[in-house]
Write a structure and sequence with these properties.
heterotrimer, A alpha+beta, B alpha/beta, C alpha/beta, B: Beta Polymerase, domain 2, two-stranded antiparallel ribbon, about 25% helix, C: 7 helices
Amino acid sequence: MSGTGIQSFLPPVIDVEAGEELLEVAMGPHHPSTHGVFRMDVALDGERVVRLKPVFGYLHRNHEKIAEKTTYLASMPYTDRLDYFCSMTNNWAYALAVEKLAGMEVPERAEYLRVITAELTRVQNHASAIGFLLQEMGASGTPLMYAFREREKILDLFEALSGSRMMCNYMRFGGCRVDLPAGWLDRAKLVVAGLPRFIDEIEALLTSNEILMARSQGVGVLRPELAVNAGVTGVMLRATGVNYDVRKVDHYGIYDRFSFRVPLGDHGDIYDRYMLRVLEMRESVKILEQAMAQIPEGPILDPKSKPRGFRPKPGEAYGRIEAPKGELGFYLISDGSGNPYRYRVRPPSLINLTILEDMCLGQNVADVVLIFGSVDIVLGEVDR
Amino acid sequence: MKSAEELVEELKSALPGVDVALVVNPSPSAQHSLRVAAEDALRVAAYLRDQAGYDYCSNATGVDWLDKETSEKVKTTRTVSKQVDGVEQMVEEVVEETVKRVEPGFLEAVYHLYSMKRGHSDPHPPLVLRMRTENRADRVELPSLTPVWRSAEFQEREIFDLYGIVFKGHRDLRRLLMWEEFEDHPMRRDYVDPDDYEYEPTPHDEVLKRAEEHRAQMAAAEGAR
Amino acid sequence: MAVEPDLKIELGKQGVFVTTLNELYNWGRRNSVWPMQFGLACCAIEMIATTMARYDLARFGAEVFRPSPRQADLMIISGTVTKKMAPQVVRLYNQMAEPRYVIAMGACAISGGPFKQGYNVLKGIDRYIPVDVHIPGCPPRPEALIHAFMTLQKKIAAQPLTGESRPRHLDALAQGEFPVPVPSAHDLEPPVNRLVWPLPAGAATAGSGETA
């Protein structure tokens, strides 16, 4: 903004020759590449994008309003349906915010269970994200089939643990809902032992693939200053080289006990985002191996936690975790009653889309689909 | 890392005349916040970003605070004429009265700030920045902080959509989630849903309440005919 | 003349294949139902999982997901239909060519599901368009979607080509366009299409007090 002396980060303005006729295209809300109901109003000058406005709200399911009308615990299953690929991490973020609000402790074993389920979630999310990205690139089917083959193995584990493939509703304030069934850990170890082979397979197919490199290197470049200012988090941010992972920064849960690295990119382009997802899967496998070797016996729920009649003292809390899509936060205000006075989800998918316009302007329309795919969003979380 | 108290002092000395107050959060999370007057908000935000290192605005959201009615018992002494032993006398009497006061409601915008460049060396709780509108009806303007933190762009549009706070200086303030023809602000606490109740086999709780309201309305409409 | 089923099987054993035009026509139709590539919410992920190698919807002749409504026979309403999205869903349905079928997948598409009390959530897509198969679940498992698919195939196989209950594409007078709701200041207009969503019998006395 001029006049106030504040340095703002605004998208570039693309010059169009006077008298040039622009083609207005509404991509979505039913468009094969948007995996969901998302719309981009694009203005094209030939192949070049000169204007892009995202339109949201086609999946606005009033999660926050419903949560303010119901009890704290009753919102837990709704969090599953935010980012429906990653119900475990959604549960964790909400449980963490409530634990901060009420000052609860989480038993040791429950912390391990949370790490194991969250990292399994991260692996299957990144695998699917790569599959969908390649689908966008024209590799219809095959990479996605490989990703879903691995995802099914992890979903079977979730189903054995929580009773549901996708909507796990597994965590509770101060712990987890059920303990591991007999033999689960051995099965999980088997699945995790198979993961490095799967990642090798994906890498052999894709990492040095000429088409992937040609279409993704140097496309959709994001500058680190803009990424920080626009609140971009997760893989998108780290691909620009900014070292910020909430697992390392906030030390939530027990992530301090495991040795793992945070992969960083150099260029902030689509290829870096792809590569980071691969590397993060490898780091998740490392965390999983350590956690499954160390997990102790013990209770899984804070004995002081009350599932019924839970009324935290007046106050507010903001809790956040590193979800596979970025920083997922919950902001709660309690007025001392059984329902939250204000319940807010900080959706990483929505905020990561702030810079979609900046990345797409001046690019070819075919690349818009790729850039959008590389952000890795889920509409349930964007619109809530 | 400076605590919120220290930051209030720092802001007051660095930006003379600035209206900043500490809001204490009594919950165990102890995430205290700064309340800043709307006219100073842009100045404070720019200082926080450029000097205090809060380069990352994680979350921006609205809160609706309804008019609060507080009742207080006040004791007053009055002289009243009374019949005492058959003679009229003036007697002092203590009367207890309930005084009702209405605290006007307001809309609030809340921003959660972190520092990315200091993140690892200096882990800290979020710095919470709050702004209030004057009331809930017509004076609902606040300065937009999007020029300082771009991440507020969509979130401020969402607050405008769902709460009705008008952000001055926002580059593209339109509804984010609801359709453009929509006129209400559905996240406000006094929002009334459209009467789209339909037959429910087993209504209970809130749904039962809505069912009864709906029935009453239909009966009234029937009677009017 | 219909042939008795037992006789048909016996003839089949002898190498004689007997059929009717009706059966042959429906056999072809039911084994090449092409769904529209159209995902709405959580259920869409289970729909994708159904098409993948493990559940393999291709076994039922339905692996070809068409992005264009003009080329699709089946619309799977896979997830919550919001009031903002409902006009688009009806418009897409109107653009499909007859014969066309609709599967309402999951609790949200049937009734609004867990989000029923939301201000922007439609309480079931069958308020605006006719639905052939409903599958409950949140989300329904891939097996449930396959079951819905087989139910639809049975429905197609049982359709007579003449008479009152013939499919719409063989009925020149059948209604093809469904009114698209218009978003207005507070709600969709109209909130319900009473042609496809009549009041349930006895609703006026049992619950809502509404009079048709």
